[in-house]
Each structure stands twice: as structure tokens, then as C-alpha cells.
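Example 9 (inverse folding). The structure is encoded as follows.
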């Protein structure tokens, strides 16, 4: 089942990032890339955003990746929603150039953001996956 979960991560490139600061939740729609093993998910943001301030205060996050766009015509019971629990991490400077290039290859429309000298490329270290298929079938897996 974990391979099915990772396949959804690889197939998609947009998620909802949920952060919390001072007990207040905040959600952001984010473009992402993942490493081949889906152990890390990479995103780009500006340091003055609420999400980044939240990440610095509380590194625990949740991501939601789902199939609602392609499943618009399907019944609710056929949609998939993958919740990922993870931890915010800074990216080692030696990896930034390669990751930046990979990010732009997947998201060329974000070139202006990625090229901004203030922009921050960061990682979410995956701890667990929970896949909901339809309204009844749920599967949980710890990250490998």
C-alpha cells in the first residue's frame, strides 16, 4: 500500500500545506517536488509569508494531496486523499542548485518566485502517510 501512496505523491505536484502557530492553523496551496523515495517533499516560499513564520515556530506540518480535480465527475467514494505528516527542514546549501533546477523543470510557471534572491527552498521530511480511498477505506503507513 505504501507504494500506492508514494505513486500519488509522484503523480501530483500541488498540495495543501497546513501549519500551526500559537495554536492557530493556516493552510497554503503549494507546488512541490519529491525525492524519488518520497522521503522529502520540497517547496519554495518567501520568508515574509505567514506559512514560513509558522514553520519556524512549529516545524510539524500536514500535507494534503488529493484527486478531486480529475475525479470531479466521479462519486465521492472514488476520490483519494493522502495526508502526509512531516517536519519542516532547511535544505543543505550543497543541494539547493540541483533541487532548484528540478523544481523549475516541474514548475516553470514559478520561475519568478524561484529566481527571487529572497525565496527559500525548504523540505518537509515525511514521517507518515494516511490514504483515504472514498469515504470508508483508510490506510496508514510510517515513512520508510
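The amino acid assigned to each position is listed next.
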Amino acid at each position: 500500500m505504501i507504494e500506492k501512496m508514494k505513486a500519488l505523491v509522484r503523480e501530483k505536484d500541488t498540495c495543501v500545506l497546513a501549519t500551526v502557530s500559537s495554536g492557530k492553523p493556516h493552510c497554503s496551496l503549494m507546488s512541490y517536488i519529491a525525492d524519488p523515495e518520497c522521503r522529502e517533499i520540497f517547496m519554495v516560499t518567501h520568508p515574509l509569508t505567514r506559512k514560513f513564520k509558522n514553520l519556524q515556530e512549529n516545524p510539524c506540518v500536514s500535507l494534503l494531496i488529493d484527486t478531486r480535480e480529475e475525479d470531479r465527475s466521479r462519486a465521492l467514494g472514488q476520490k483519494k486523499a493522502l495526508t502526509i505528516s512531516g517536519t519542516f527542514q532547511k535544505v543543505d546549501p550543497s543541494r539547493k542548485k540541483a533541487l532548484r533546477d528540478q523544481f523549475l523543470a516541474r514548475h516553470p510557471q514559478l520561475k519568478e518566485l524561484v529566481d527571487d534572491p529572497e525565496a527559500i527552498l525548504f523540505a518537509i521530511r515525511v514521517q507518515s502517510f494516511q490514504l483515504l480511498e472514498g469515504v470508508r477505506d483508510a490506510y496508514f503507513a510510517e515513512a520508510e
